[in-house]
Amino acid sequence: MWHVTLYNVLFLTNTILLYIIGIPFFLQFIYMFLCWIPKKTWPKTEKKNKICVIIPAHNEEDVIHDTVKRLFDRQDYPKDMFDVYVVAHNCTDKTAEMARKAGAIVFEHNDPDKSKARAAYAMKHGYEQILKTGIEYAFTIRLDADNHINDEFFSLMNDAYNAGVKIARPYESALNMTQNQFTRACGLYYTFDSRISSRVRERLHIDAHVNGPGAMTAFEIIKKIGGYDTTSITEDTEFNFKRMLDGYKAHFVEDAVVYEDLPSTFKDTLSRNKRIAAGNLRLLGKYTPIFLWKTISRPNFSFLEQLLTYMFNIICVLFCTWIPAFYIYNFAYLWGQGLYTNAMTEAAGINAPGLYNQLILVGIILLVLFFIAGIGQGLLLVMLDYKKLGAKRRRDLISGALLFPMFTVVYSVTMALGAFSKPTWTKVQRNKKQQNAIINGAAVNVAYVENEDKTKKEKGEKKNV
Fold first, then answer.
1. Which three-class secondary structure state does DSSP give residue 149?
2. H helix or E strand, kind and range, residue 366
């Protein structure tokens, strides 16, 4: 009968999709079980290289002054050996003025073309102007307007550069990790790629995912390509893809930490993920054939690993569309036909287990994902890196670990919605209390500063002894 044939075809399609989904999930499980691998470090060096810091900004008067000022006030690096450039792109506030007051060199770039209202064009314009100065930098670091970095950041990136690293990403943490329950869960989710995945990639000689603030790039690369050669929505990711294709290897400098403002509500998460999902899905469509060919022709697992990880963008869409739609149809069909056991489905010509068996199997899978890939992953991060996450005690983040599965659902939904959107570069709406803290020059993540200062004090005491 036609409905039996239709069911068999849909069940087979779903089975194939589940196997495809399972591959990147299996890779993440491997990373979790290899979390004990020691981190990679680079030898300390006395040679101090000239650093170029570039910050694209759109209406960021609330935070840009503190971000720039902290670089000059707190970095354990010679002040005459780094320059900070802020690209004020289509700003209608005091971003440029506040950046200059803090000591940055500011390029004001106004472009009425709405299609160019994104960070990529600010980066492109900024590097064009920097190259015109003729200053010879060793490497460049890209930051966002709200970022803070640990005091040793420049020195650590300098050590990596002197060891031969041309492209690197830092450890990404949060300014507002303990702001509320949402940011606790959100922060743990985003930190997984830093503490777990990135460390394992580095130790197994797999390219790091350089796709966020704090990215380091040798200036010789910027000069070679004439500035910035991508203008896509997720330009940071595509920039890394292109450098991989050029033959450069991306590394992970774990002790260099960048702290960014994480979304604190569902609305904030949706706004952030619109850009990520829309941009990454476009990049997957463009680079999947190229990366697959490189995987086969070289071979180089880094290309395939990048594709498998970015497949989570597609998986989010499937989780919010195909998966619920199919299983509603699946269980309704089996129940309506009275096919409860395997013997019943076999007798009816159905190439699938009966309703009871499928319910048990789906239940087991959901429990495994909930406790191991969900709560277990969150607890693992809390146990390993609570200090880097800005907490005084592990128990401060336990609630975030327990809510980790719920945030995963929120993340999937927002990514799925973002996949069908056309995001623009808009002013970020931040928590009012957090804005006031930044304006007053205070550190939002008090625990982070206390831990940092305590470590410095201990180092000083040991040195005196």
1. strand
2. helix 355-368
Residue 395 confidence (pLDDT) = 80
Report the pLDDT value the prediction gives residue 445, as an integer from 0 to 100: 44
| Exposure on the CB side of residue 458, measured as CA atoms within 13 A | 6
The DSSP call for residue 264 is -
Q: Residue 447 has what pLDDT?
A: 40
The SS3 of residue 56 is strand
Contact at 8 Å (CB) between 259 and 173? Answer: yes
- What is the per-residue pLDDT across 27-61, written as a single tens digit (0 to 9) for each? 888 988 898 899 999 999 999 999 999 999 999 99
Type of residue at 373: A
The DSSP result for 94-123, as a single string, is: SHHHHHHHHT-EEEEE----GGG-SHHHHH
Q: What letter represents residue 21's amino acid?
A: I
| DSSP assigned state of 146 | T
Alpha carbon separation from 189 to 184, 185, 347, 368, 429 (Å, rounded): 9, 6, 46, 17, 21
pTM recorded for the entire structure: 0.84
- Write down how long the chain is: 465
Instruction: List, in order of start, the domains of the chain with CATH numbers.
Output: 51-264 (3.90.550.10)
Nearest of 207, 318, 232 to residue 283 by alpha carbon: 232
3-state secondary structure of 66: helix
Helix, strand and coil percent figures for the chain, each rounded to 5: 60, 10, 30
How far is the C-alpha of 227 from the C-alpha of 411, rounded, in Å? 33
Task: Yes or no: say if 191 and 170 are a contact pair by the CB < 8 Å rule.
Answer: no
DSSP 175-240: SSTTSSHHHHHHHHHHHHIIIIIIHHHHHTTPPP---STTEEEEHHHHHHHTS----STTHHHHHH
Q: Which residues contact 6 (CB under 8 A, 6 or more apart)?
A: none
Position 454 scores a pLDDT of: 47
For the chain, give the longest Cα–Cα distance.
Answer: 86
DSSP 8-state assignment for residue 373: I
The encoded tokens of residue 397 equal 């983040």
Query: Residue 205: exposed, middle, or buried by beta-carbon count in 10 A (0-12, 13-18, 19+)?
Result: exposed
The alpha carbons of the chain give a radius of gyration, in whole angstroms, of 24
CA distance 254 to 214: 11
Cα–Cα distance, 132 to 278 (Å, whole number)? 33
Which residues of the chain fall below pLDDT 70? 422-465
What confidence score (pLDDT) does residue 266 get? 77
Q: Report whether the peptide linkage leading into residue 56 is cis, meaning its omega lies within 30 degrees of zero.
A: no
